[in-house]
Amino acid sequence: MASTPEPGAAGRRRSPLPEGTLSVAVGLVLGGIAQYAFLVVAGRALGATRANPLSVFWSLIFVLGTGIFLPFEQVIGRALSARRAHGEGGRPLVLRASVAGLALLSPLVVIGVVLHSWLASVFFNGDALFVWAMLLGLAAFLAEFLGRGTLLGNAAFGRYGLLIGAEGGFRILLCAALAVAGVKVAGLYGFAFVVASLLATLIAVSGRRGLLRPGPRASWSELSQALTYLLVASVCTQFLLSIGTAAVQVLATPSQHAAASRFLATRIIAFIPIFLLQAVQAPLLSKLTVLHTERRFTEFRSALVQMLAVVLAFGGLAVAGLALLGPVAARILFGGGFDLGNLDFALLGGACAVFMVAQVLNQTLIALNGFPRATAGWVTGVVAFLVVTALGSSLFLRVELGLLAGAVATVAVMVVLILPLLRREAVAASRSGERVLSRPAVPEL
Q1: Do 20 and 288 meet the contact criterion of CB atoms below 8 Å apart?
Q2: Which residues are CB-neighbours of 346 under 8 A, at least 6 positions away?
Q3: Rounded to whole angstroms, how far apart are CA atoms 315 and 60?
Q4: Secondary structure of residue 430 in the 3-state scheme
Q5: What is the DSSP letter of 394?
Q6: Is the Cβ–Cβ distance between 385 and 402 less than 8 Å?
Q7: Among 16, 98, 368, 377, which has the highest number of CB atoms less than 10 A from its own CB?
Q8: Contact 435, 295 (CB under 8 A)
Q9: Regions of the chain with pLDDT less than 50
């Protein structure tokens, strides 16, 4: 049955970007500049060797903090968006998600306290301050992603962008204060990094009314099922996006004492495009969830195709630019001793471009309740990374090829698994006339 677009739908389709992208992008650009400035200032203040454990900390805090707690943003954001389409509040969901988050955080803190000496020795050159900063960072990331999910689900994109921008701003301010004071203790820069997250979250959610309206209860079984799949997927995602630096640190010989810092500088520049993609990811999930909930499949498919086209074009340009100008940018930003070669930038840029496609497909699968399918894609990518990296011999090349292989494997699996869902949605939308508001086939959280 042919669909009848709602009034104004054609105008909205002129832009491939979801509503709210601009608000998030402003905060993201400001926050991103400040966050990269954090590493530049810290790297110059500490030097390549002394900054090495800070580079590993940066990598691990995203693997663990974002990997474990990003699913709370995704679950809350998706469920609140679906409830908003039905005029329902989501306070019970947010409260239960908060309890679940604390249940995940508690054992991690206990493990960190018990093993702090070993963790400091293995990852941070014996600096135990990084372990305590890591534990505080996990708590900060839980609070941040609970807040981000609540803002996203309520379409409070301005506040969402404020949180991201303020986080980066606080990080550079605190880092600059330490650098100006001549602080050479690398662990204190780790504390500055996580304290900024707490301050930004507090500012973004304070004074915003209507975020936690009463609504239908959310069962533990529904919450735990979605979170379990998304937790595995998120940890795998952050593993692939952030583990490269830690992998270089583990595989490096004693003579390659600054290898992790050099790799991180290259990876940061090469992965700037995927950082910018965050401006689209959150609004995209909210938009696709509402379109799926309301069975507007034609608009859903159009939004997906347009986003993939934008991402592919942007990623292709980014790879070309990185291959040509990446080493120059690294020398300008970080100074001598941090830069790698053109091939390193080209490979990492290629991995970044493919990961961008994977992120769009991941948000689409979440909107379609395809949690197990998204998880399968990321798990396959991790396996591909481990295999390719293990088979290599050259320190940087084996990690770079591993990341590229992981990205390609993730996208390949997701494409295979998403096509049946899209066909199912097309049939369901055709039968319902695409304008009948109905609940998703899988109960919302």
Answers
A1: no
A2: 319, 322, 323, 326
A3: 25
A4: helix
A5: S
A6: yes
A7: 377
A8: yes
A9: 1-13, 434-445
Distance of alpha carbon 227 from alpha carbon 223, whole angstroms: 6
Least Cα distance to 285 among 272, 271, 304 occurs for 304
Within the chain, what is the greatest distance between any pair of CA atoms?
Answer: 69
Is-contact 201 147, C-beta < 8 A? yes
Q: What pLDDT score was predicted for residue 23? A: 64
Q: 97 phi and psi, to 5 degrees?
A: -65, -35
Task: Report d(CA 51, CA 39) in Å as an integer.
Answer: 9
Q: Which residues contact 209 (CB under 8 A, 6 or more apart)?
A: none
Instruction: Give the count of beta carbons closer than 10 Å to the beta carbon of residue 228.
Output: 14
Rounded to whole angstroms, the Cα distance separating 160 from 142 reads 15
Q: What DSSP state is assigned to residue 442?
A: S
**Which residue shows structure tokens 């840029």?**
349
Tokens found for residue 288: 């696709």
Which pLDDT score, from 0 to 100, does residue 439 have?
41
Q: What is the pTM of this model?
A: 0.70
CA distance 120 to 210: 43
Beta strand residue intervals within 335-431, DSSP E: none
Cα of 138 vs its chain's centroid, Å: 15
Q: Which tokens hold the place of 405? A: 């292989």
Which residue do the tokens 């979440």 mark? 366
The set of residues, in sequence order, having a beta carbon less than 8 Å from that of 148 and lying 6+ positions away, is 73, 77, 160, 163, 282
| Alpha-carbon gap, residue 272 to 164, rounded angstroms | 15
pLDDT tens-digit map of 148-182? 988 888 878 888 888 988 888 898 899 889 888 88
